[in-house]
């Protein structure tokens, strides 16, 4: 059936590990959604028209509201579709802390194994794109040299997960799958897609392998496909549901109507400029316009992002 302004549109590609995290959340919640496949490398003109410059994947679109980064995507999915909750073990706050671990420390070890394992994965265009994204050399030879040491780090973190499952629980926080499982599974999936040596490290942990199979069996909800042009048309015809609200607790005195710049604090630090609509300790929303999509509101998490008054 055709998508509309209420449809969940995930701008993604299938071998994106962070997209896999969100797809698992969609599966846990049993949601219907639309996959809008984006290029792996720049240029990404349709995505940038929506986000104002943010280029990392995934991005979720619902009408004229655009959610950048898996953290804010999961937060919004939980807000809009609270049952079943992804917070299943008293982890409503710490679940996102788990995400900071898997997105940074665990992911860095995974990247070294995936790209340092000897497979010819990255051509010159990919390497140049990732160097621009990260702001530093994407050095395959250095990753190969580091891979044995990073395998130790990767194995140690697999061991943490094995220990968490040692009491026979089905999922990381108990009997039901939740956000910790979505955070925990995607680095394993990324490794298995590409690295046989990395997969062998995973296979040494039997409880982890059994858990991995249970997470995979959840699936990804009900997926449809949508073109990038159709997604942009939906944004242009829609109106954001975000309401203007000034947060009295803003530590630097930001208020609705201020012109601000938002950027990631790790890599992909493309600045996105807009008018502040609302904010809290966990989110910030900016209004901006683009000739292709009209007025949209772009949402970011606060942890992991910098906000500067323009």
Q: Beta-strand percentage?
A: 15-25%
**Please, what is the oligomeric state?**
single chain
Summed up, the helix count is: 10
Order of helices and strands: EHEHEEHHHHHHHEHEEEEE
Q: How far apart are the termini? A: 42 Å
- Output the structural class: alpha/beta
- In helices, the fraction of residues equals 40-55%
Low-confidence stretches: none
Protein described:
With 310 residues, the chain is α/β, with parallel strands linked by helices. It is built from ten helices and ten strands. It has helices at residues 17-29, 45-51, 70-80, 94-116, 124-134, 140-164, 179-194, 196-203, 206-218, 228-237; strands spanning 9-12, 32-37, 59-62, 65-68, 222-225, 259-264, 272-279, 283-290, 294-301, 305-309. The chain is globular. The model has no long low-confidence stretch (mean pLDDT 95).
Write the layout of secondary structure elements.
Layout: E1 9-12, H1 17-29, E2 32-37, H2 45-51, E3 59-62, E4 65-68, H3 70-80, H4 94-116, H5 124-134, H6 140-164, H7 179-194, H8 196-203, H9 206-218, E5 222-225, H10 228-237, E6 259-264, E7 272-279, E8 283-290, E9 294-301, E10 305-309
Parallel strand pairs: 1-2, 2-5, 4-9
Antiparallel strand pairs: 1-3, 3-4, 6-7, 6-10, 7-8, 8-9
Helix pairs in contact: 1-3, 1-7, 2-10, 4-6, 4-7, 7-8
Summarize the structure.
The chain is of the alpha/beta class. The chain is built from ten helices and ten strands.
């Amino acid at each position: 059936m055709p998508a509309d302004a209420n449809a969940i549109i995930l701008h993604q590609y299938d071998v994106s590990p962070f997209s896999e995290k969100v797809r698992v959340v969609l599966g846990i919640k049993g949601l219907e959604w639309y996959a809008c496949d984006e290029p792996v490398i720049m240029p990404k003109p349709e995505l940038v028209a929506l986000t104002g410059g943010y280029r990392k994947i995934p991005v979720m679109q619902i009408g004229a509201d655009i959610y950048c980064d898996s953290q804010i995507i999961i937060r919004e999915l939980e807000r809009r579709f609270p049952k079943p909750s992804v917070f299943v073990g008293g982890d409503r706050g710490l679940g996102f802390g788990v995400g900071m671990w898997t997105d940074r420390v665990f992911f860095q070890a995974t990247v070294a194994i995936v790209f340092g394992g000897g497979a010819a994965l990255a051509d010159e265009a990919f390497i140049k794109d990732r160097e621009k994204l990260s702001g530093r050399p994407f050095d395959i030879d250095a990753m190969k040299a580091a891979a044995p040491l990073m395998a130790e780090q990767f194995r140690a973190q697999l061991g943490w997960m094995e220990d968490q499952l040692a009491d026979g629980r089905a999922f990381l926080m108990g009997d039901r799958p939740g956000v910790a499982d979505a955070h925990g599974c995607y680095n394993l999936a990324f490794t298995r897609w590409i690295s046989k040596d990395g997969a062998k490290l995973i296979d040494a942990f039997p409880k982890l392998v059994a858990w991995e199979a249970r997470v995979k069996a959840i699936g990804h909800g009900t997926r449809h496909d949508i073109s990038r042009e159709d997604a942009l048309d939906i944004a242009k015809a829609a109106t954001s549901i975000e309401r203007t609200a000034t947060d009295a607790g803003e530590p630097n005195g930001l208020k609705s109507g201020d012109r601000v710049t938002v950027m990631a604090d790790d890599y992909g630090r493309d600045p996105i400029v807009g008018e502040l609509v609302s904010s809290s300790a966990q989110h910030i929303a900016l209004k901006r316009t683009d000739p292709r999509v009209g007025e949209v509101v772009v949402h970011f998490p606060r942890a992991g992002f910098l906000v500067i008054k323009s």
